Amino acid sequence: MKIDLHASLRAHNTFGFDVSASHLAYLESKSDVVEFVSQASSSKQPWQVFGGGSNLVLAKDLPGYTALMQIKGKSLLKESPTHFYIQAMAGESWHEFVEWSLNNGYPGLENLALIPGTVGAAPIQNIGAYGVELEEVFDSLEAFDRNSQEFVTLNKQDCNFSYRHSIFKEEPHRYVVVSVCFVLPKQWQAKLSYAELTKVFANQQSLKPIDIFNQVCAIRRSKLPDPQAIGNAGSFFHNPLVSDDLYQQLKQQFPQLVAYPNGDQWKLAAGWLIDQCGFKGCVMGRVGVYEKQALVLVNHGGGTGEELLKLAEQIKKKVKETFGVSLTVEPVIFN
Ligand code: FAD
Ligand code: NAP
Asked: Atom of ligand 2 at shortest distance to CA of 224?
């Protein structure tokens, strides 16, 4: 296992923050994972495993041990009369895996196209987009468990998935995910609940998974900043879930409020709340809010995680004052 000392993480986080890792390891096999955890644990210093760095705010140099998950491989594991079971190793690019699944005749992941990052990180926040969440297509995963010091298999129940949440957020650093298995029905059904997909495809005959894939990619390219050009981590805040009482109160006060029913609660569009507070397109030094989507905070170049977190605090304060709603940060923060 290769370890670099005092290595820059600038190319390994999509905000492009220029911080360093005291020890940076590259995990290319399951035995690298065992070696890394053993070495990092015996150092008695903090340690963490990253994928593509697309859901991180690195606001300081990282002491201790950091690893980049780079184990590769993907395959059809098995099939039943009704389902395909496909597996990818944790270091595979999520988007490339989605493309591969479609090219090989295993549809079902197309709504989740073009989400940056790795397969291994996808269960951590139960990634979701355009009406599909990872948990709907998840079968199981294999992870190294720091507590038992062995590889374990976790099924859907073990992972305790909910909206952008899982066991891995409750017990951070306990598990290092090494592979994920997905279960996809052979009887494919298009998922078109989101307005941007409904509009385009509602009346289309013989719709194919690749059509949805292409449309999702096109919408995302038109609305979201490419991290290669403008540093960002996608949505910076979760869409808050509020009670029916609060929703009714807010709807009366703000008739344009954007909200969607979510069980017995309502999901408020955090981007709309932030936009109403006047932050869309704002620039604060070298960081700011993306001009086309107020939920995305950006690094215009040379900014720091500290600057970004200050801006995030201002946004949270103003949203709380205006709507009485608390925003929570989505990316994982190191400060
Ligand atoms: P990282 O950022 O490297 O890590 C995130 C967390 O997972 C960290 O806590 C890390 O320690 C942990 N982790 C990473 N790999 C492992 C592993 N193998 N084992 C254990 N823990 C691990 N998210 C969505 O849900 N939906 C979207 O539509 C979406 N769109 C985005 C668009 C843009 C432009 C960007 C920049 C981000 C977007 N995201 C979205 C957020 C992000 O892409 C996802 O959360 C993604 O799954 C993060 O993957 P990563 O490999 O980059 O993880
Ligand atoms: P959008 O379509 O402008 O919608 C705004 C918000 O309303 C979204 O966050 C979405 O919640 C919710 N929404 C819209 N239509 C809905 C419906 N029919 N039913 C339930 N909820 C609905 O959002 P956007 O910013 O362009 O993003 C499009 C999709 O990509 C969303 O699913 C979003 O989550 C995902 N995305 C995520 C990230 C990230 O970093 N997490 C970044 C970019 C895009 P949900 O977020 O719950 O879907």
From this structure: 43
List, in order, residues 6 or more apart from 24 with CB less than 8 Å away. Answer: 3, 4, 5, 7, 9, 66, 67, 68
Q: How far is CA 47 from CA 25, 147, 199, 209, in A?
A: 11, 14, 46, 40
Q: With CA atoms as reference, report the closest residue to 183 among 136, 243, 124, 115.
A: 136
What average pLDDT does this structure show over 102-128?
98
The ligand whose atoms approach the alpha carbon of 132 most closely is: 2
Q: Tens digits of per-residue pLDDT, 213-231?
A: 999 999 999 999 999 999 9
Dist. CA 269 → ligand 2 center (Å): 8
Q: Which residue has the tokens 């697309």?
A: 54
Mean confidence (pLDDT) of the chain? 97
Q: Residue 118: is its pLDDT beyond 90?
A: yes
Q: Residue 152 in contact with residue 159, Cβ under 8 Å?
A: no
* Selection from 294, 289, 287 nearest residue 273 by Cα: 294
DSSP for 252-265 reads HH-TT--EEEETTE
% of the chain at pLDDT higher than 70: 100
Band of pLDDT at residue 204, cut at 50, 70 and 90 = confident
The domains found in the chain, sorted by start residue, are 2-69 (3.30.43.10), 74-222 (3.30.465.10), 225-334 (3.90.78.10)
**Single-letter amino acid code for the residue at 37:** V
Of 199, 239, 268, 297, the one to substitute when testing ligand 2's pocket (max ligand atoms within 8 A of C-beta) is: 239
* Count, residues in the chain: 335
